[in-house]
Structure to design on (105 residues):
């Protein structure tokens, strides 16, 4: 899926809608096409996801309130996209895997 800057509406990168999670970081985004640079440094945190064109934060902005941010919010050519949270990404099955044995049994 294409990532579009929420501020200047330039297409700046791509992401996998199935795997991207909030809070977003630079490692979740790939170049727009082969030969293009990555849109963000892989180590960039959510607040450092700055648009290579306009220099503003490209994701997670709130239309109405500049003081509010959405750690999973993005814009695509098809409209807004919200990344799942880490909690919803983890199936319940994984929690049981680490079940401890009762030492007194
Ligand atoms: Zn921009």
């Amino acid at each position: 899926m294409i990532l579009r800057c929420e501020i200047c509406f330039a297409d700046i990168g791509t992401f996998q809608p199935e795997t991207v999670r909030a809070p977003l970081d630079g490692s979740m985004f790939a170049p727009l096409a082969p030969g293009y640079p990555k849109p963000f440094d892989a180590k960039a945190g959510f607040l450092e996801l700055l648009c290579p064109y306009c220099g503003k934060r490209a994701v997670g902005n709130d239309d109405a309130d500049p003081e509010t941010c959405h750690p999973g919010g993005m814009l695509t050519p098809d409209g807004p996209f919200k990344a799942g949270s880490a909690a919803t990404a983890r199936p319940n099955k994984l929690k049981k895997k680490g079940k401890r044995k009762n030492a007194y049994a």
Q: What stands out?
A: The helical segments are 86-89, 92-97.
